Structure formats: C-alpha cells, structure tokens
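Instructor's aside before we start: the two examples that follow are unrelated to each other. I chose them only because their records fit on one page, so don't look for a connection. First example below.
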Amino acid sequence: MTTLTIRPTQSSVGIPSERLAQLRALAHHHGVSAVEIIERAIRRGVEAGEIADTLPGFADIAVVDDDVLFVTVRNVSLPLLDRYQANLIAAVIDAATGTAPLPGLEFKSGSAKGVDLGHGNKFYVGRHAKAVTFAIVDGRSSQTTLRTATTASIATDFARLLRKHATEIISPVIDARTGQPTEHYVRITGGVPTTDLSAVQEAQS
C-alpha cells in the first residue's frame, strides 16, 4: 500500500504594499507570523457566524446514525469514531499545539504520539518545527495511509470541531450486545477521567 503524503499548499494574495507593512507590524506586535494574523481574522469570522465553521480542504466531520463520527483528513477516512476517541484525539492535538498541555505528554519537533483507535488502527499527532503533523495507520495492512501537516491554528480548529461534533453523539448507557453498562455509564457514574491516556502511544521510529 502506498502512503499518501500531502504537503500543505500555499496560495498568494495580493495586497497593497502599505497594507503589507501594516500586516507585518501587527504580526510583530502580537509576536506571531503574518499568516497567524490572517488565521485569527478568519477565526473571528467563524465565531461571528459570518462564515461556516468548517475546514474546507483539510477535514470533514459528520455524525453518523447519532452514535459515531465520520472523519476525513485530506480526503482520507479515519475509522468511525466514538465520542471518547474523538475527544482523545482532540486532547492530544491540543497538547501538541500547546493549547492545553497534558501531564506526561510532551511533544518535541520530529516526535509523534499515536492514538489507538482499535483493531490496529492508529492516528498519529506530532510536531515538526511549527507545523502539526498527522498520520493514519490502517489496522488491516499495518501500513501508513496518510502523512500530512498543517498550521497549529488549523490543528486547533480541527480539535475544537471534533469536540463540537462529539457532543452531538447520543451515548447509550447499556451495551445492546452484552447487556452490560457502557463506558459512558461507567464514566458518568464512577468518575473515570474523561481523557484516558492509556490509548496514546509513542510513535515508533
């Protein structure tokens, strides 16, 4: 199986040189790049409801049958995710970006952490310089089906959207197959931590 490697594409936007000087000055004032200033403006547009809260070209997320999430990254599908898997991926992404560090989970440039999605499927989140990297490993073939990267800002939005859609999932309290309480029931009644890092593993070099 061939690994699909998709590098982030960049586009050019022509602005008057006077505005470019102002953009650079604004970026310098906030201690970020000019790209980050533009991304912040886009995020404000999303928050104000002026544009759709989506990540076109990077990820699609949809609730299926009220109980799982269908997620694609760069048009490559992940296994169907339950609420806890989606929240775990989001937590690992936020740790990678530094938005919400997790104890015992440290990201250095060139490192990655794998989230176990069951049946040998894994979703890797890592860092490379300022970029956030992602990889998908198929459980049936044990092959990496996707490698890609994006900005920390887009990765943070991806994590937020995973959480947002995960809240729409209806979680049963009894497993229809076994008749036993589900993990959801155990968590809400037994105080099991929402972010269980046992499914997060170091990437194999």
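Example two begins here.
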Amino acid sequence: MIDPDTFDDSQKQVLSLIVEDLNGPTSVGALLRMIENIIYSIKPDIELSNFDNDPALRSDIEVCMAALNYMKVRQIASGE
C-alpha cells in the first residue's frame, strides 16, 4: 500500500500538481489509467519492493499510483 504521508517533499509536490490537473480540462486521469494498465500488463503481481534498486522509478510509480487512487476515490464519491 502506498502511503502519501511518507512521501518526500518532491513526491508531495508532484502529487499536488497531478491532483490539481485532475480538476482541470487535461487528460491526466486518462494517462494515469494508461500507466496503471501498462504496469499491470507488464507485471500483474507488482510489488514496489521490486523497484528498490531504482529509487527514482519507485518514487514515480508511488506518486502515480497515489494520484490514481485519489482519482478513483473522488470518482466513487461523486458518483461518476
């Protein structure tokens, strides 16, 4: 499970920008869904520990997945 409370300042900043874009007329939501589909098609049993040897990639995945989870919860809450 990804816990945004443990994010460093850089991750928090990127997550904030993504969430801000979700409220606008961009395709960020569609891109997050594509990233999710790509990750799970390449590695269906994804575990973040598999990316310990590449901290930058792990950080990017954590931020994208946190933003995706936020988007999903927001959509459910709004009835979308």
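The mean pLDDT is 87.
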